[in-house]
Design a protein that fits this description.
About 5% of the residues lie in helices and about 45% in strands. With about 425 residues, the chain is mainly beta. It has 2 domains: about 325 residues, YVTN repeat-like/Quinoprotein amine dehydrogenase (Methylamine Dehydrogenase, Chain H, 7 Propeller), CATH 2.130.10; about 70 residues, no CATH class. The strands form 10 sheets. Strands 1-2-3-4-37 form a 5-stranded mixed sheet, with no helix packed on it. Strands 5-6-7-8 form a 4-stranded antiparallel sheet. Strand 10 and strand 11 form a beta hairpin. It is elongated and about 75 Å long.
Length: about 425
């Protein structure tokens, strides 16, 4: 278990410092004792997130060192104009709130509202200064997620309320075999009062601590004797998200929201859903494995109606076409981490990620761009739909790629 916790800790560190460390390669680390003064020099411009804003007729982009600007596509390429009087925050997330407003999340757990002229701080979501890693908005509501179980909502873009996920329902799982051994559920902190286990030995109900033993904190069942395969053993329960003995201590990196259904993804490969404004939660995409699982580390996601995609480390991509109830593994576009995913007007997923990864799914195969031809030397993360049906992909070192008519091209960026 120690090795497994260390691997989770490493993954979480990568996720929590996604912008400041992993992506913000131009930033020098601030000494802890001098954290109140930002002495870093901005050597390059990193586009961490962005969204097309109709009122500005361009892409509002955000990034480290207080980067907030307007990127306008021109015949010669793209032109970046910085907005004045922006706080020196490392912006980690951006979401369109209205035709002339965006919500911004920062690496220190703060949320800001930008109306095209003024950046106003509207919330502080983390007492531990954990980063805001994603924001989703629909039908006049928005949700923000981040490190250490951060989940918050707003109905006006200004007043934010923190939400705690105390309990999640795990629907019935079928255990594949009854041979003596261990079966892991991929979650920890089971509530023993809610466990419903069904299994038989020679046609008689299996006896706890004689035929099987449950380990609720670690999240697995041990078969002591051989259980019957017909009917196969099953189990359902409720649990608190987070690692063993640390309920709630989980980084949520992805939030998807269609106005009613809320979907979260993050550490430990968990996918949670709520359809009642976060009052109750159900776990999706669960597997039972004979050893401690190595779940994906979700980094990004996208939703269009009932079609949802989640992407993560090592190029993992999963898709759901029934609103997130069931999920299917897709062929990976690459072995690099996928930092962003968006759908074209035709519903084709477009991914962006580490080492200049960028590609679009054509049928069942990924059309991955030639990185040498496009001179891709940095990561890519955000794909922005444009009014003309094209897509602009943004990333580190001002990297801007255009996807139009199925072809990728490099866009030169200049600054006013």
């Amino acid at each position: 278990m120690i090795k497994d916790r260390n691997s989770h800790a490493l993954s979480r560190a990568v996720g929590s410092m996604f912008v400041v460390a992993s992506l913000g390669s131009s930033a020098n680390v601030i000494a802890a004792e001098d954290a109140q003064v930002d002495h870093r020099a901005q050597l390059v411009v990193d586009f961490v997130d962005g969204a097309y804003l109709p009122s500005e007729e361009g892409i509002v982009v955000a990034g480290t060192h207080g980067l907030l600007g307007l990127l306008k596509m021109t015949a010669e390429g793209a032109e970046l104009t910085r907005y004045p009087n922006v706080p020196t925050e490392d912006f980690t997330a951006l979401e369109k709130w209205s035709d002339n407003e965006v919500l911004l999340g920062s690496s220190s757990g703060k949320v800001f509202l930008f109306d095209g002229k003024t950046v106003t701080e509207v919330g502080s979501l983390s007492e531990y200064n954990e980063p805001v890693l994603d924001i989703a908005a629909a039908n006049g509501k928005a949700w923000a997620v981040g490190g250490r179980g951060m989940l918050a909502r707003t109905s006006d873009g200004k007043a934010w309320e923190n939400v705690t996920i105390e309990e999640v329902t795990q629907p019935q799982l079928t255990i594949p075999a009854g041979d003596p051994g261990d079966w892991y559920f991929g979650v920890s902190n089971l509530n023993m009062d809610t466990v419903e286990f069904a299994g038989t030995v020679n046609g008689k109900p299996a006896v706890v601590d004689t035929d099987y033993a449950l380990y609720p904190d670690e999240g697995f069942v041990q078969f002591i004797n051989t259980l019957d395969s017909a009917p196969a053993p099953t189990i359902s329960f409720k649990f608190a998200p987070g690692p063993a003995f640390r309920a709630g201590d989980v980084s949520w990196n992805v939030v998807l929201f269609d106005g009613t259904n809320l979907t979260l993804g993050g550490e430990f490969g968990m996918v949670l859903q709520s359809s009642d404004d976060a009052k109750t939660w159900v776990r999706r995409d669960a597997l039972v494995t004979p050893k401690e699982p190595e779940p994906p580390y979700w980094i990004a996601g996208v939703q269009d109606g009932n079609n949802l995609y989640l992407t993560g480390a090592a190029g993992v991509v999963r898709a759901s076409h029934d609103g997130g109830v069931t999920w299917a593994q897709m062929a990976p576009p690459s072995t690099e981490g996928v930092f962003g995913v968006t759908l074209t007007a035709e519903g084709k997923p477009v991914v962006a990620g580490a080492v200049g990864l960028v590609g679009v799914l054509e049928g069942e195969k990924w059309n991955v761009a030639d990185r040498s031809e496009l001179q891709l030397l940095s990561w890519l993360r955000t794909a922005v739909k444009m009014p003309d049906g094209s897509m602009v992909l943004l990333g580190g070192r001002s990297t801007t790629i255009m996807l139009k008519d199925g072809k990728f091209s490099r866009v030169a960026v200049s600054q006013k």
